[in-house]
Amino acid sequence: QVQVVESGGGLVQPGGSLKLSCAATGSGFAIYVMRWYRQAPGQQRELVAAYSTAGSTNYAPSVKDRFTISGDDAKNTVYLQMNNLKPEDTGVYYCNVVYDNHGYYDAWGQGTQVTVSS
């Protein structure tokens, strides 16, 4: 079993920055992809950014050039640096981990709240 824990959310003013962290723990697994999703009230969950251990990254058009995803493979951790935050970035941010443990599985964290408001 892989457990996923997010941290780093909070309240920030428009134009501010936050850095989220997502750590995957367990044993006997190999991570392929770590993704950040977000869900605003009344909205569907949407993909924000993705990081693969092969070294590729992808971003939603709405966050490209403002957010940066990076990973520390040795720590099974991924980060999301969010700059120039806007009120529409408000939501619960979830981390999703795709991993191999004698088969492909994925695991979700509980989410961390990000609120952008003046």
Describe the structure.
It is built from no helices and 11 strands. It is mainly β. The strands form 2 sheets. Strands 2, 4, 5, 6, 9, 10 and 11 form a 7-stranded mixed sheet that branches. The protein has a 4-stranded antiparallel sheet with strand order 1-3-8-7, with no helix packed on it. Strand 7 (67-72) and strand 8 form a beta hairpin.
Offer a few descriptive terms:
118 residues; 4-stranded antiparallel β-sheet; elongated
Q: Structural class given helices, strands, pairing?
A: mainly beta
**Beta-strand segment tally:** 11
Amino-to-carboxy terminus distance? 40 Å
What are the low-pLDDT stretches, counting only 5+ consecutive residues below 50? none
Order of helices and strands: EEEEEEEEEEE
Spatial shape: elongated
Radius of gyration: 14 Å
Provide a compact summary of the structure:
By secondary structure, this protein is an all-beta fold.
Topology of this protein?
Blueprint: E1 3-7, E2 10-12, E3 18-25, E4 30-39, E5 46-52, E6 57-59, E7 67-72, E8 77-82, E9 91-100, E10 104-108, E11 112-116
Parallel strand pairs: 2-11
Antiparallel strand pairs: 1-3, 3-8, 4-5, 4-9, 5-6, 7-8, 9-10, 9-11
